[in-house]
Specification:
Layout: H1 2-13, H2 38-43, H3 64-67, E1 74-75, E2 78-79, H4 84-91, H5 97-114, E3 123-126, H6 131-137, H7 141-153, E4 156-157, E5 162-164, H8 176-183, E6 187-189, E7 197-205, H9 209-220, E8 225-233
Parallel strand pairs: 1-8, 2-8, 3-4, 3-7, 7-8
Antiparallel strand pairs: 5-6
Helix pairs in contact: 1-5, 4-5, 5-7, 8-9
Length: about 240
């Protein structure tokens, strides 16, 4: 864990601007400081010991349920607890770039640690918003997150690979089975793939319904493998 935190400090310190700790509000001194004080960095709700396939700490790695998922692995360094829900909400707003940067940096470190050399996905595909929600927010936070990660890891982003072909009701409050039904047929692929290895990027993963819907869509369009990268993983109730 110490090495992991050291790496994250270096990422967060890159291009950092002196200011306040994003969590506790303490002053940070010097441009080389991260946007989190050392205490808050250690106190973040790290998603350690999670199932490699689904990203849940509640599931063993040999879970039959996880083996049936259409995506190969889930990278989700943080739990949807503590300050993370607020950061996620702010990332959906126009003024939330500092929080998005924090989430992207933590995710980029976890990605680098998870893959052997030269085995990263070839293309990042952000989960698309419906046109209605995009007009409300003014931007797609998944695309911003994917773009930040792509710059750090020197990867390609295809923001038009998937299209949300129908507006879906918001997921909070729905059961897991209702979430899967809600997302069924919600996406279509705009291109044909030729055995590519792709990573779907989103801000938070709850039931996995959106990840499964996008992965199935990409596999049907010719992808050989789909991984899921999300900043935070919700804990099952």
């Amino acid at each position: 864990m110490h090495t992991h935190l050291t790496k994250i400090r270096k990422y967060l310190a890159h291009d950092a601007i002196p200011g306040l700790c994003a969590w506790c509000g303490k002053w940070l001194h010097g441009a080389a400081k991260p946007a989190l004080c050392p205490h808050c960095l250690r106190a973040l709700p790290w998603n350690t010991g999670a199932c490699r396939r689904c990203g849940r700490r509640e599931h063993p790695d040999d879970s039959t349920q996880c083996a049936a998922l259409p995506f190969e692995i889930t990278i989700s360094p943080l739990l949807y607890q503590g300050p993370i829900p607020q950061w996620i909400v702010r990332s959906k707003r126009r003024g939330g770039l500092p929080e998005t940067r924090l989430l992207a940096d933590c995710l980029a470190i976890a990605i680098s640690d998870a893959y052997p050399a030269n085995q990263l996905p070839e293309v990042l595909v952000p989960v698309p918003l419906s046109w209605r929600r995009l007009l409300q927010r003014g931007h797609n936070q998944a695309l911003v997150l994917a773009s930040m990660i792509a710059r750090q890891l020197n990867l390609l982003v295809d923001p038009r690979a998937l299209r949300r072909q129908r507006h879906t009701p918001i997921q909070p409050g729905l059961s897991e089975s209702a979430r899967y039904a809600n997302m069924s047929g919600a996406f279509c692929c705009r291109r044909h793939w030729h055995g590519d290895h792709v990573a779907v990027v989103d801000d938070v993963m709850t039931s996995g319904a959106t990840a499964a819907a996008t992965a199935n869509c990409l596999l049907q369009a010719g992808c050989a493998r789909v991984d899921v990268w999300c900043a935070a993983r919700a804990v099952s109730s």
